[in-house]
Amino acid sequence: MQENDTITAISTPLGEGGIGIVRLSGPKAFDIGHKIFIPSGKMTCDYPEAKHLYHGHVLNKKGETVDEVLVSFMPAPYTYTREDVVEINCHSGVFAMRTILKITMQNGARLAEPGEFTKRAFVKGRIDLSRAEAVINMIKARSEEAVKAAASNIRGALDDKVKVLRERLIEARAPLEASFDYPEEYEMDDGDLKKVEAAITYVKEEIKSMLRDIGRNRAFQEGVSIAIIGKPNVGKSSLLNAMLKQKRAIVHEMPGTTRDILEGYMNLGGYPIKLIDTAGIQGTEDPVEKEGIARSKKAAEQAKLIITVHDGSRKWEDEDRKIAAMVEPNQGKVIVINKKDLEMKISLEKVRKCYKEATVVQTAAIRGEGMSELEEAAAEQMDVLFKGVSEGPAVISIRHEQILEETYICIERAQKMLVQEQPELVSLELQNAWLKMGEITGETIKEELLDKIFSEFCLGK
Ligand SMILES: Nc1nc2c(ncn2[C@@H]2O[C@H](COP(=O)(O)OP(=O)(O)OP(=O)(O)O)[C@@H](O)[C@H]2O)c(=O)[nH]1
Ligand SMILES: [Mg+2]
Predict the structure, then answer these.
(1) Tens digit of each residue's pLDDT (9 = 90 or more) over 252-283
(2) Taking the model in full, what pTM does it have?
(3) Domain boundary, last residue among 128, 159, 186
(4) Is 296 a pocket residue for ligand 1 (Cβ < 6 Å)?
């Protein structure tokens, strides 16, 4: 990738809206800005002032006005990319923004790759890699908690943590290295050994706790799937609608109304939730229904939490037991007895016997009754599933997880070799761990991997 050219991109989502931004970064950004932008008033000096927003018009090659805009000229190095940056605030119509983008390209800018602005910020040393990746997480965050975690990593929480751990690894290596580099002059005593042991244990425990928290961090980042399952006609779709507070799914007295899985998004006790309505599960010969049921089963398998729904106005059947048996031991569950507004025919005793300790909530989904109890029970289940999480930098990405797992293996090996009194090997493993962890901050990372990481960004960021 050439770092010395000037890049351009539409930095806001494409669509109709009040304002859209076309952003330029690089050595020719100001030149291009001057060429295509005619200010309404006089610029206060030849070199545009930072922190000023200039009103004017963008012109095309023929000198025709394309849009009325506000433009900011931000000189390096105090910019996102540490290069000269020009931001053109135009009207957010797809055509207007594309036209301005095209004009910037006709005047010497190149279309930016996804994430290239942030990559430049990294390459120019303004942010480390963990901060850059936090920017992606911020953009993709689905809950307040995820935004908080991403913001703390943008401020450098993960970077700081990794630096501390790497520092401890260096400290641990010092006496080991001295003992085999200068065996005549230096011999490790018990005090040294204890220090090495303590550092190794510290790093190991810290990594363990970071790995343990990943599930919850990801849940906040990406959302948790909750599947609603049950026999046909028990009120699953009515429940989905009541929980989402909208008429998302078709509800009908005819059993087998929902043919395919259907999703909706909501927030539950701070957790971002993907709520999934499924087709009623029963034995059937209808090929379409069969396919719907297969999809429902798959969605249920992949969900973190299952809401099993039973019709309270009908007797407990063997089919209900089969539904209950679909929940896996590692999944959270909440049991709903629906249609409580009708005469209850279901045996609560049988329900309890089947589900043991699980929370049972009675609802009348069509009237929206029992929803707060249901949501409370589901949120409690989430807390159980993601319990014991410590404060600290949030690790979310698979890349970070892999690095931490590999580092953990190196540290474990080092710990074992320390007992076997093999200082050279201990030191080597600690060095491997140190190098591995450097990939989080980007200090020891390869160029190809960088390209891959930044390619996951959206355009214009
Ligand atoms: N009285 C009463 N009727 C309900 C309640 N919830 C749902 N129903 C009715 O039960 C019927 C089936 O509701 P749905 O929500 O479509 O049930 P479902 O489980 O999604 O059904 P399938 O998609 O066919 O599997 C409809 O006629 C609803 O009006 C309730 O709380 N009380
Ligand atoms: Mg349905």
Answers:
(1) 998 989 999 999 999 888 788 999 999 999 88
(2) 0.65
(3) 128
(4) no
